[in-house]
Amino acid sequence: MRRVALLAATILLTACSGDPASVPILTVVITAPKSTIAVGETLQLTAIARDVNGLTLPNAKITYSASPTSVISVNETGLVTGIGPGMGSVTATSGNVTSQPIAITVN
Q1: Nearest residue to 98 via CA among 69, 70, 63
Q2: Pairing state of beta strands 102-106 and 36-37?
Q3: What is the pLDDT of residues 11-34, one digit of tens each?
Q4: Dist. CA 88–CA 105, nearest whole Å
Q5: For residue 54, what is the DSSP state?
Q6: DSSP secondary structure string, 84-106?
């Protein structure tokens, strides 16, 4: 009986100690405090990756992409800079999951 309990505890601990990086990402959500900036102004975006249970994955690697680059640019931390007048968008990607684009207008 003691061996069965020890085996069950070992299996449970092994299952719970998986690599957090291997948790499947279900969604990536990107938010901004506002949607309009001036040329030369910056805006900090926030992106959150969530797993299949809806839990935030705080250590998920997020990459950002902006388009068109003649209107906005975005760095590796999600800081957007207004380059020229127009409408642009930014997406955030974690693993193989990409957020819906967030629109940014530059005046």
Answers
A1: 63
A2: parallel
A3: 333 344 444 456 689 999 999 999
A4: 6
A5: S
A6: SSEEEEEEEEETTEEPPPEEEEE
- 9 token code pair: 């505890």
What domains are defined for the chain? 22-106 (2.60.40.1080)
- Write the pLDDT tens digit of every residue in 81-105: 999 999 999 999 999 999 999 999 9
- Structure-derived torsion over alpha carbons of residues 86, 87, 92, 97, reported in degrees to the nearest 10: -140
Distance CA 65, CA 59 (A): 19
What are the phi and psi torsion angles at 32 (to 5°)?
-140, 145
Q: How far is CA 57 from CA 25, 51, 67, 80, 82, in A?
A: 8, 7, 26, 23, 29
